[in-house]
């Protein structure tokens, strides 16, 4: 049987989407080895032969005010991308997360006759429920990473499939903490705290200095602590300046990326709200979730929030299993105290790890194959 030639277009607007899209591409390439994939993506996608027409970093902006500052450039990219896709006509467009960028693009392409899918259901169960109608217009099918989402989308007349969370298959059920510490050159015995202030420039601006000050306070209480902080290469200079200003240069080991190694190695993590918190949960690590952003962005976001939780581990468990310190509550002292509390509570840590093991099992599926199955059904109409 001759191989079916396929051309797909994808857009993944940030590092977490790049990881998801990379695994999606594994499924598509396994199903259609000669397929071509184009659009906007990052290193995980590029490693699988993806052709990126713009750098992914152009889209990695978070928060209402921050997006407004970059709006003209981002809107221009979307306009040119839409024109190119309407001319080139891929067989299918897949928007990977980034709903503010992707949903309008999907709607325009779908209206022109191009089949569309959206990978990662927008958090209509957490905030901005009005997106459900927009999603129904934009996507022929939604690939969901949480098990409760397809039934919720069905209530809105949206076709969807649960494909599991790809990261649940990447992270081992029992992480090798000793091996990770050895690989990072850390003391095998002294406790390790991982600092993850985010992967976006705006997050570094609002969070990193506070995280480093919290580390200073922790060190006063526990001088034996080791600190590690994974940093994307493009943000390293800014992080090093903030680290120098905090007086913690030489006490916080900066890692080029390697966030998974940091989470495997640590005993606890102080971490920015976002996808990384789910990764920390899958590594079975106790965490303190913190977030700070532009005050106007925060005020607008709070008005649309539907649940009492912001962090994904708390949302998925349906309760505050880990502390959240947001905006004014995210003081260095509060972050330090909450992180140290985990280090002093082994029984609580063990109970949390059992909860996270159960969550890990719920999220494990053969995601690449399930994605390819769903995409094939879309293509076949």
Topology:
Elements: E1 7-12, H1 15-31, E2 36-41, H2 43-46, E3 51-55, H3 64-69, H4 71-88, E4 92-96, H5 99-111, E5 115-119, H6 131-138, E6 141-144, H7 149-154, E7 160-162, H8 166-170, H9 177-184, E8 192-196, H10 201-221, E9 226-231, H11 236-246, E10 252-256, H12 259-265, E11 268-272, H13 275-282, E12 287-291, H14 295-303, H15 312-317, E13 324-326, H16 332-343, H17 346-363, H18 367-379
Parallel strand pairs: 1-2, 1-4, 2-3, 4-5, 5-6, 6-7, 8-9, 8-11, 9-10, 11-12, 12-13
Helix pairs in contact: 1-18, 4-5, 5-6, 9-12, 10-11, 10-16
Indicate the radius of gyration in whole angstroms. 21 Å
What separation lies between the terminal Cα atoms?
22 Å
Largest sheet: 7 strands, parallel
| Total of helices | 18
Average pLDDT rating = 90
> Would you tell me the structural class of the helices and strands?
alpha/beta
Number of beta strands? 13
Which descriptor suits the 3D outline?
globular
Neighbour order of strands in the largest sheet: 3-2-1-4-5-6-7
Name of the CATH homologous superfamily of the largest domain: Glycogen Phosphorylase B
Tell me what you see in this structure.
50% of the residues lie in helices and 17% in strands. It is built from 18 helices and 13 strands. Strands 3-2-1-4-5-6-7 form a seven-stranded parallel beta sheet, sandwiched between helices. A six-stranded parallel beta sheet has the order 10-9-8-11-12-13, sandwiched between helices. It folds into two domains: 7-164 and 365-379, Glycogen Phosphorylase B (Rossmann fold); 177-363, Glycogen Phosphorylase B (Rossmann fold, 3-Layer(aba) Sandwich), CATH 3.40.50. The chain is of the alpha/beta class and 381 residues long.
């Amino acid at each position: 049987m001759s191989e079916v030639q396929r051309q797909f277009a994808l857009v993944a607007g940030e590092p977490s989407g790049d990881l998801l899209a990379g695994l999606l591409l594994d499924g598509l390439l396994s199903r259609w080895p000669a397929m071509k994939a184009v659009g906007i993506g990052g290193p995980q996608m590029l490693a699988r032969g993806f052709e990126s027409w713009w750098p992914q970093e152009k889209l990695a902006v978070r928060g209402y005010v921050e997006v407004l500052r970059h709006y003209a450039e981002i809107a221009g990219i979307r306009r040119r991308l839409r024109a190119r896709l309407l001319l080139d006509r891929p067989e299918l467009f897949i928007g990977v997360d980034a709903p503010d960028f992707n949903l309008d693009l999907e709607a325009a392409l779908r209206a022109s006759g191009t089949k569309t899918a959206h990978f990662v259901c927008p958090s209509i169960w957490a905030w901005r429920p009005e997106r459900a109608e927009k999603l129904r217009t934009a996507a022929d099918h939604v690939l969901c990473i949480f098990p409760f989402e397809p039934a919720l989308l069905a209530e809105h007349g949206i076709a969807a499939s649960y494909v599991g969370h790809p990261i649940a298959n990447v992270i081992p059920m029992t992480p090798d903490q000793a091996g990770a510490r050895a690989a990072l050159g850390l003391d095998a015995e002294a406790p390790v705290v991982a600092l993850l202030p985010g992967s976006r420039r705006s997050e570094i601006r609002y969070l990193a200095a506070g995280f480093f000050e919290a580390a200073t306070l922790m060190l006063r209480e526990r001088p034996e602590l080791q600190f590690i902080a994974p940093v994307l290469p493009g943000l390293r200079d800014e992080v090093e300046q903030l680290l120098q200003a905090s007086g913690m240069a030489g006490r916080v080991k900066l890692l080029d990326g390697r966030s998974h190694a940091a989470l495997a190695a640590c005993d606890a993590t102080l971490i920015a709200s976002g996808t990384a918190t789910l990764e920390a949960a899958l590594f079975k690590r106790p965490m303190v979730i913190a977030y700070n952003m532009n005050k106007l962005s925060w005020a607008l976001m709070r008005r649309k929030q539907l649940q009492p939780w912001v962090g994904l581990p708390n949302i998925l468990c349906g309760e505050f299993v880990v502390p959240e310190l947001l905006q004014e509550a995210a003081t260095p002292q509060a972050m330090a105290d909450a992180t140290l509390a985990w280090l002093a509570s082994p029984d609580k840590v063990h109970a949390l790890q059992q909860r996270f093991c159960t969550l890990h099992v719920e999220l494990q599926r053969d995601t690449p194959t399930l994605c390819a199955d769903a995409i094939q059904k879309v293509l076949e109409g």
